[in-house]
């Protein structure tokens, strides 16, 4: 894991709050980078170089804005919009809240159909493209009767599923189209959580010796007491049989997407930050994950910026809170994460990160509702993120959207799949 040194002095600015200088944080960058904090040009920026400055607006604890989207579905023939040089096609439809996509080592594609408890299909559907034309010619219900599944993993002849209340594993042979064996619950987890924090993601270490499990918080800022937050707001590490559990990193309010940076053993995660401090606080973020690292929740955010609702609590944790790498905009609900390992997209996309932003609900105006791309150069996030897949918002004045992106996954042919859980579709983005 690489580390960065930041100074921990705080300076109040009339435009916001700044963190200046150097102490422990997520990384060091040689060149300054301006990263858009709220996803709009000219907004507050983060400059990440040695002697870095993070500017954020002051917290507003009276903030009560709400603007919930209404899904109207995609008109016939209409698709999301990608940059010039890309095509967008429907890979699969007639799904029920497709939330996460996993591509197995044998190239089979697994899609979780899952949602809030009362709406969840609780199944995983398998797709197979046998002639490599970018369209699945086989579709099977792979597992049924799950409990709000999200994370999936193939490892050591097992198929792992992270339900909201625990990790299951099933005997699995490469290429099988349906799980027939009895599953084994290898790890129990605290179920549910604050405002859709039911997702539990999975990823294996590079050598397959460990599995990492993400668990979101039970609350917004610990308002139900920290006893309710045990083993939450964290990434857990376990052995493949479920033993040896330990907290790998904590203070991560709702870590959902996880992926390994290409060519490294550095784990990254996309995190949903807290509500109730204003339209532009607190930014969701993409960050490298330090073993044993603490990322602030619920006591502070973006380093030592103290949440006024937890003022004076746990100063020793605030002191060591790590500043995340890349802010992704406040209330964007940044869920999916996929580093691009292929070579079919233009060279600027190689080794960069795609993030699926499900979209806001507690903000005066919509934020998110798109897939963004974070360029990486020499192993560092480079400059601000940019829009990659847009067009999900139909009419913001009427709160209408066609769909909402969530999970993202790269196919072996170098194209990108995007799960649109409100549009009940999986989209495929390919270079022309």
General description of the model:
This protein is mostly beta strands. The protein has one domain: 6 Propeller (Neuraminidase), CATH 2.120.10.30. It has one helix spanning 315-319; strands at 4-13, 16-25, 34-36, 45-47, 52-56, 70-71, 86-92, 98-103, 109-113, 123-128, 138-143, 151-155, 158-163, 166-171, 184-188, 200-204, 211-215, 234-238, 246-250, 255-260, 267-271, 283-288, 300-301, 305-306, 326-330, 334-339, 353-357, 370-374, 376-377, 380-381, 386-389, 393-395, 400-401, 405-410, 416-420, 425-431. Strands 1-2-5-4-3 form a five-stranded antiparallel β-sheet, with no helix packed on it. It has a four-stranded antiparallel β-sheet with strand order 7-36-35-34, with no helix packed on it. It is globular, with a radius of gyration of 20 Å. 49% of the residues are buried. Residues 45-55 have a biased composition (Low complexity).
pLDDT averaged residue by residue:
89
Largest sheet: 5 strands, antiparallel
Distance between the termini: 36 Å
Total beta-strand segments: 36
Shape: globular
Based on helices, strands and strand pairing, what is the structural class?
A: mainly beta
Protein name: L-sorbosone dehydrogenase
InterPro entries: 6-blade_b-propeller_TolB-like, Beta-prop_PDH, Quinoprot_gluc/sorb_DH_b-prop
Pfam family, one: TrAA12
What are the key terms here?
36 strands; 432 residues; mainly beta; single chain; Neuraminidase; 1 helix
Topology:
Layout: E1 4-13, E2 16-25, E3 34-36, E4 45-47, E5 52-56, E6 70-71, E7 86-92, E8 98-103, E9 109-113, E10 123-128, E11 138-143, E12 151-155, E13 158-163, E14 166-171, E15 184-188, E16 200-204, E17 211-215, E18 234-238, E19 246-250, E20 255-260, E21 267-271, E22 283-288, E23 300-301, E24 305-306, H1 315-319, E25 326-330, E26 334-339, E27 353-357, E28 370-374, E29 376-377, E30 380-381, E31 386-389, E32 393-395, E33 400-401, E34 405-410, E35 416-420, E36 425-431
Parallel strand pairs: 6-33
Antiparallel strand pairs: 1-2, 2-5, 3-4, 4-5, 7-36, 8-9, 9-10, 10-11, 12-13, 13-14, 14-15, 16-17, 17-18, 18-19, 20-21, 21-22, 22-25, 23-24, 26-27, 27-28, 28-31, 29-30, 32-33, 34-35, 35-36
């Amino acid at each position: 894991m690489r580390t960065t040194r930041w100074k921990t002095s705080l300076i109040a600015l009339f435009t916001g709050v700044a963190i200046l200088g150097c102490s422990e944080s997520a990384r060091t960058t040689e060149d300054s980078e301006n990263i858009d904090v709220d996803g709009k040009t000219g907004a507050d920026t983060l400059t990440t170089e040695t002697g870095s400055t993070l500017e954020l607006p002051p917290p507003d604890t009276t903030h009560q804005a709400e603007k919930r989207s209404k899904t109207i579905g995609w008109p016939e023939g209409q698709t999301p919009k990608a940059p010039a040089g890309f095509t967008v096609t429907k890979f699969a439809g007639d799904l029920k809240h497709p939330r996460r996509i996993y591509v197995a080592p044998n190239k089979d594609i697994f899609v979780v159909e899952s949602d809030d408890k009362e709406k969840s299909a609780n199944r995983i559907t398998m797709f197979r493209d046998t002639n490599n034309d970018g369209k699945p010619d086989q579709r099977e219900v792979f597992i049924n009767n799950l409990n709000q599944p999200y994370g999936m993993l193939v490892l050591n002849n097992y198929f792992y599923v992270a339900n909201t209340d625990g990790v299951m594993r099933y005997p699995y042979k490469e290429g099988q189209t349906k799980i027939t064996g009895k599953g084994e619950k290898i790890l129990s987890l605290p179920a549910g959580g604050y405002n859709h924090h039911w997702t539990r993601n999975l990823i294996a270490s590079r050598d397959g010796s460990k599995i990492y499990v993400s668990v979101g918080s039970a609350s917004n800022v610990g308002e139900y007491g920290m006893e309710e937050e045990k083993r939450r707001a964290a990434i857990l590490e376990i052995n493949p049989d479920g033993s040896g559990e330990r907290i790998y990193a904590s203070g991560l309010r709702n870590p959902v997407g996880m992926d390994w940076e290409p060519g490294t053993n550095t784990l990254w995660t996309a995190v949903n930050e807290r509500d109730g401090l204003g339209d532009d606080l607190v930014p969701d973020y993409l960050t490298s994950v330090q073993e044993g690292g603490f990322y602030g929740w619920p006591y502070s955010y973006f380093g030592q910026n103290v949440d006024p609702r937890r003022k004076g609590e746990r100063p020793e944790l605030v002191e060591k809170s790590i500043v995340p790498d890349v802010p992704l905009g406040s209330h964007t609900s940044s869920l999916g994460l996929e580093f691009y390992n292929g070579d079919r997209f233009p060279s600027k996309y190689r080794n960069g990160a795609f993030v699926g932003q499900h979209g806001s609900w507690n903000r005066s105006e919509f934020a998110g509702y798109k897939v963004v791309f974070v360029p990486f150069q020499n192993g560092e996030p480079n400059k601000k993120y940019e829009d990659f897949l847009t067009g999900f918002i139909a009419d913001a004045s009427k709160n209408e959207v066609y769909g909402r992106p969530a999970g993202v996954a790269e196919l072996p042919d170098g194209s990108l799949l995007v799960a649109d859980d409100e549009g009940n579709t999986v989209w495929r983005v390919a270079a022309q």
